[in-house]
Structure formats: C-alpha cells, structure tokens
Amino acid sequence: MSRIAYVNGTYRPLRDAVVHVEDRGFQFADGVYEVWSVFDGRLADFEGHLTRLWRSLDELRIDRPMSPEALAQVLKETVRRNRVREGLVYIQITRGTARRDHPFPAEGTPPSVIVTARSLPLARGNATAEKGVAVITQPDIRWGRCDIKTVGLLPNVLAKQAAKERGAAEAWMVDEMGLVTEGSSTNAWIVDEHGKLRTRDTQSNILRGITRAAVLEMAAKEGIELEERAFSVDEAKRAKEAFYTSASGFVMPAVSIDGVKIGDGRPGPVATKLRTLYLERARREAI
Fold first, then answer.
1. In sequence order, what are the residues at sequence separation of 6 or more whose Cβ sits closer than 8 angstroms to the Cβ of residue 208?
2. 3-state secondary structure string, 209-236?
3. Average predicted confidence (pLDDT) for the chain
4. What are the pLDDT digits (tens) for 204-236?
5. Helix extents (H) in the chain
6. Second label for 60, Cα 20 to 30 Å away, from 107, 130, 246, 259?
7. Whether residue 1 has pLDDT greater than 60
8. How far apart are CA 251 and CA 28, in angstroms?
C-alpha cells in the first residue's frame, strides 16, 4: 500500500509529498515537531503531546496553523489513510516558505504543516524490551533550549549514529559536570544503588517528555520511591536498573552502559512493571 502524507491542506502519496525549496524548516531548521504513538488506530497521550506542540510553537513565535480540533482530525485521518493500527504519527510545523533571510518572514506567512504515519508493531518492541538494550554515553553538545522540540536535531543524529556504530540502541548525553541530561531521543532513568527511582528534573536543558510525565505519575501511584534529580554516569553504571522512556520506545530497559553491565544484565522489575502499566494506560486512554 502506498503511504499517504498530509502536506499543507492536502493528502497525497508519499512520493509526491514535497515542500518548497525555501521552506524555513529546510533552510534553517526553523520548525518544531511532535510524535504520537498509535494504539488500535487511536492516539496515545493526545493532550500531553498537543500541549507541548503548542508550547514549542509559542516559544519560537510560530503561528498555530489550525485549531486543536482540526489538528486532531488531520492526525486521525492520516492514521486512517495509512491503515496504521499500531505505530506512530508524526507532525512537523515550520515557519513557512519565504525568500531565504535570517529574520522572520512577513507577518501572515502561513506555517507549513506536514503529517506522516507508519506502522510499528508493538510485538517487535516488546521482544526488544524482554532482552533489554545497550546504551552509550556522549558529550552533550546541543543548544541551551532542549525544552523546545525543534527539528534542529543534528547533535542528536550524531549521537544516535555513534550508538549504532557501537552496537547500542541509544546514546545518553552527558553535560560538563559529568551528569546525564537525556538520551538522543529519550529521557533517561535509573533505579540507583539505594533502590530509588531517579530521572533528571525538567529545565531548559532537557525535553519535557510526555511519556516521562506519565511514568512519574504511575510510579507515584505505585508507591515507588522516586526523585527528580540528576545522576552521574558513574551512578548510572552502579545502578540496580536503567531504562529510558519515549513515545516510540515507551519504557525500554537498558542492560549496559558503555559496555558496563547494569545490575544482573537483565531488565529489572521496576522497568518491566512500569512498561506494562504504561502500555495498559496508553491503550486505555488513547483517543
């Protein structure tokens, strides 16, 4: 089946889905994006991702292209046309098309909106989670506003490629103090050597993960002792468990960091439980 994309008001085959050469997303990475997981053809954590999308646009002073209701319809229609039951739907909104110049284009320039969807069988991710994955660490060389979900992801791309070349699934970024900020496309967590669940607090140097927020809420309800506090690479390597969260990976156990085995080298009970709880909640509350 030919995949279908939404581009600036029309649905078209992916091979014909194009934007202008002077779109500011292409020229300057002047845009934002968001990703929803799809369960049974429905969108998970819809309001959380929508709120973050609006915030990213507002922080960059990009006009909101449509109402929340219209956006929800576009996302759902793209999912429907691609016959996605389990997978992802991706939206990218840029400042629009204008003659290449660094300042913002003329007021009233419409944003560009691109939406795509693809299938991603949950069974594949579950099989990976049962074994756990490897993580490496990389220096965090990104800009200072990682709380905005922009399409300017070159440092993330380089980190992910470094992970791939070393046989790992993810790279955790490390700041100048030796503290883990987040993954190249995920939020980082550990169960420290004292049994406390930890993840870094959300300031401007990390993304306010929607899956992260859901996991924090579930952990609190389960009575798991937790703390939003940064941890060092050494603390992560001494941890009882490590895992990361994202819209596509959900809760993914990490069984090694830079080749150092975490705990007994297998997915731990906290990560396993939180993954199960999150998947149940996401499926139940999807719209």
1. 52, 147, 202
2. CHHHHHHHHHHHHCCCCEEECCCEHHHH
3. 96
4. 789 999 999 999 999 999 999 999 999 999 999
5. 24-28, 46-60, 68-81, 122-131, 154-165, 210-221, 233-238, 269-285
6. 246
7. no
8. 33
Q: What is the mean pLDDT of residues 104-116?
A: 97
CB-based contact 62:95 (threshold 8 Å): yes
Mean pLDDT throughout 138-143? 97
Q: What is the pLDDT of residues 114-124, one digit of tens each?
A: 999 999 999 99
Give strand pairing partners of 253.
243
CB 192 within 8 A of CB 244: no
pLDDT for 203 = 82
Q: Distance of CA 204 to CAs 47, 59, 84, Å?
A: 21, 12, 34
The residue type of 74 is V
149 noted as active-site residue: yes
Looking at residue 204, its pLDDT comes to 73
Q: Which among 149, 160, 164, 273 is annotated as catalytic?
A: 149
Cβ–Cβ under 8 Å, residues 113 and 23: no
Sequential DSSP letters for 127-177: HHHHH-EEEEEEE----S-TTS-BS--HHHHHHHHHHHHTT-SEEEEE-TT
SS3 77: helix
190 with 182: CB under 8 angstroms? Answer: no
Say which residues have a Cβ less than 8 Å from residue 17's Cβ, sequence separation at least 6.
5, 7, 114, 116
Predicted TM-score (pTM) of this structure = 0.95
